[in-house]
Amino acid sequence: MKTIIYAHRGASKQAPENTLPAFELAYESGADGIETDVQLTKDGIPVLFHDENVRRTTNGTGFIQDYTFEQLQQLDAGAWFSNQFINTRIMSLEEFLIWTTDKKLLLNLELKTNVIPYKHIEQIVYDLLVKYNKLKQTVISSFNPNSLLNMHQIDLTVTTAFLTSTKKVDLISYTKRLGAKGLHTKNRFVNQNLINTAKREDIYVASYTVNRPNQMMRCYQIGCHAIFTDLPHIAIETRELFEQDMIQ
Ligand code: G3P
Ligand code: MG
User: Quick check: CB of 49 below 6 Å from ligand 1?
Assistant: First the structure.
């Protein structure tokens, strides 16, 4: 099985993360899927944004949860990255799903509920996925296990993945206990042993954030189910090299 390449926050080394230009570049590079982060505005609109605070990646200050969607639209989410992206807006999840309509892309929606447990975010996201018929190609992941459990309260058939940057628990058995299909974890935790153990338990392993060709190659060799990369075009090239080596 080919390792799936998810563009992490879009092609986020080439364009401002979690914005349309980054998603478009990811799609044009041939990425299999897109990973993006979801949070809720004051008026309950899911938007694609990584930090809880807008400071780092916009010209504004304060928290996403204190802005209405309309207010967020006034912020520039591209200028911080480069002048080429001045006037790039924050995107809503609904706009993103509409953009994916005619595209064969896998989606990984990361619910950013580990710092602020946004009320009803799971139901709001679920309803949009149903509305745009995207449930089948979507994985819902979260650092907050409650979000995964909440999603399964709504619909047990949703594919979920436990996201973790620590090894405080036995990762595979914890993932299983959450009823999740996948374990999304740091690249340095991912090795052949973890992948083999996971496979025996019918869990898949995906690795983040994989930006160096040698790291990508290692993931392909050990049979990672998926990688998350800021550089999808490099990951595609490297995967082609790996496949050629396999044929010879
Ligand atoms: O979903 C993988 C990765 O995005 C998790 O970390 O902080 O980049 O959202 P972060
Ligand atoms: Mg993320």
Answer: no
